[in-house]
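A common beginner's mistake is to predict each chain separately and then try to dock the pieces by hand. The better habit, illustrated here, is to supply every component at once so that their relative placement is modeled jointly.
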Amino acid sequence: MVSYKYSDKGTVIHRLSPWCKLAWIACVCILALLFDSPVYLLLLSLSTLPVILTARVWKEWLSVMKFAFFLCLLIIVINALVSNQGSHVLYQFPFAIPIAGAPRITLEGILWGVGNSLRLLAIISAFTVLMFAIHPDDLMLAMVKAKLPYKSVMVTSLSTKFVPALIDDAQRIADGKKSRGLELDKGGRIQRVKSYASIAIPLLSNSLDRAVQVAEAMESRAFGSGQKRTFYKELKLSKGDITILSFVFSSIAFGIFLRCLGQGGYQYYPVVEAVSLTASEWAMLFVLLLLVNTMPILALLKRKVSLG
Amino acid sequence: MVSIKNLTFYYSGSDKPALRDINLEIEDGEFVLLTGPSGGGKSSLCRCLNGLIPHFYGGKITGKVEVNGLNVMKHSTKELATMVGMVFQDPENQLVAMDVDSELAFGLENLAFAKEVIARRVEEALDTVGIVSLRHRATSELSGGEKQRVAIASVLALYPDILVLDEPTSELDPKGAEDVLNVVERLNDELGITVILVEHRLDRVVAHSDRVIVLEKGMITADGDPRSILSDGRVSQSGVGIPPIIKLAQAVKSKGNLIDNTPLTVKEGRIALAKALRHSEPFASRHSEPFAPRHSEHPSLSLRAPSLPVILREQSDRRISPLRAGSGVAIPRPFAIAQGDNKGPVIASETKQSHLKPLIEVKNLWHVYPDGFVAVKGINLKMCPGEFVAIMGRNASGKTTLVKHFNGLLKPTKGDVILGDINTKEATVAELSRKVGYVFQNPNDHLFCDTVEEELAFTLNNLGVKGEEAELLINRTLERFGLMQYRYQYPRFLSGGEKQRVALASILVAQPQIIILDEPTRGMEYRLKAELMKFLDEYRREGRAVILVTQDVEIAAEFSDRVALLSEGKIVVDGPRREVLSRALLFSPQINRLAQALKSYGVSGDILTAEEMIEALT
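With all components supplied together, the output reads:
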């Protein structure tokens, strides 16, 4: 069982300023969107691993990735079915759809799905750090500092806080139903949907009660008093954090620079391109990935230094 | 200081007033206990004190509420936050931050205090409530009692003059409740904070309060010092749970014996009763003939771990003065009941095990949760028709895990649970629901239909009972639970006690042989508890088994006939309630603690309830 909740594992990544982690996530996302070459995207996805491993959130990461793989599979299948611009035809359907023409599965269609799945995997992988290695209060504070309205941020943070309670509620209600003789997992599909829908009503009604109670409690503690709110905790940036931030930003800049040089591009259609990188391209790519991974490296070094 | 004049309040959309013509003055530093039946207006009155009424809950309001000279109608809840601190019933739904220190800072941040001030006040609040060790913990990982103390600290950080606590312990286990009440009492004693506490269970707090106010149907029906209020017969009529010790004192007094003052604590009771026993004729003359229940020897009594010193006292004082049956001494009635003499089909548990085929048989049951937590460790248990078993134990001792096996909600990791001739491993929960009814703590989790009638029909329909037969069963069950008048009403809009009854009816309509209730009395007022127990008692007389998971010692002492005490996933002791409860330190009822102390006067040490004690003394 993996709990989808933040827990402070006390690793060097958890200790870092949320700004560093947010910048790193942004960096991975930007690079993933910048490059098209499956080689670049694959290596970028893999280069998120050191952070995941240092933050010791691999169990959570793995369960998220399982879900992501299904999503990717779906992308690949759907794209293969609907995109028919490629020239290497693997299978030609024996019928035609009006307007859309005769559907066919092409090598290009499949590869496009695979390439973009890699892009998605890199992004999702980076976001697991957001979910599992940034303290929700810090994240909230960072969002407020980034000038998002406090009330919206608070509501978002609260809604995530009550997800586990909601899951418990649903479980209890389902148990109650079963104890009254309802076969939740039996019967036809429609019957099952109906059975599960009967959980929704008490769940919704419990949640509304909960919402009123939470609101009442917050009101009693002067929430939204009209004054400009102060913040007890601060997001401090140490020198080490600033160093890390500058490396992260430089990796974004370097990525853009490489892209401007024409590296990391790729064409799927109409004919799939051969993947070939020159020695200098490999070297540049290696430097880029190293830059992306300065965060865990520096964070570990920092602790070594402070311990030594 | 609180001053309320002619306050009447209607919630919007309601034509019955929630509060009716309330006049009340509360002095600084007072400890006020607010009690009364549910739906009596206690929560509404609390909400008036910090302006949640009328600013958060709209409605029609007349009269005047002043807190420290501020008119609540004109000042918002936010402005009043630094004067009145509110702590609510449900610990889950009042914490908003991720960890404890942010939780404490939340109110101060909202009021824009400077960071240094916040830091200092958070520190103070942690110290005052005694939760410094929790400071960096995530709020979601705390126990109920800890959460409630964090909630108290978080309002305390705002330096309120008045602390209003709306049933703060009703969702907690006895230990958590004790911790919370200790804190509240200290805040009142040492810091002079005015405390307004809403409570159903008075035995624990009444001794500490300066004043008891009873609210019924929106009106104040009694207001005064605890001794006089609780010894007033009218108050007990209203459904307020009079602590057993006071009941006892009343009865002793009414027999013409001298008791100077109404005792509020076990200690006061001990002194007063000892005095009465020494001086009064009828008692003194009985010294030579000690009162004690007739015990039969039960070799099958399963004291599984007699070496456990905390739970069990020495075996040597088990029988203070065993009077054999037929020795010619009149046997007090309550003890005869325990023997099963006049309860019809009820058979004392120890004899039953050998004669009847058990309804439930648990064989070496182990349960390990997916996260690796071993909740139940090798439990063996048998339950027979006609038994009323209380399953007790601290939080996380495995009580709920154990009973969830009885209807298949959980399947054994190792071992077997046999229901008659069905192994629960081979049946679904729905199939088992014909035999076993399971009532959850919160009736809201049960109710989802449009009418009460449909709620009952739903269960029957699932079990394949339809048409006239179903109609008959529904009518009979509605009748029995006094729900006929609510037949076509929306169940969720009923009051707490009525909802509980509908939930129970929706289970019992299927006439299961075994009924399991998980903490049904938590946060329930006394009258409703007694009502519920009456239903259950009737039910078991029909030769069925009732299993009650509870931490309420008084309920177990009064209504069950067998108690199984769990600790860390094991049964520590399992036997007739008298055997178990009179020898347990943590789980012994108030009157038993009194009886233990009066042994030298010939009072039997295994008396459990006020009624038994009265019987024994007269």
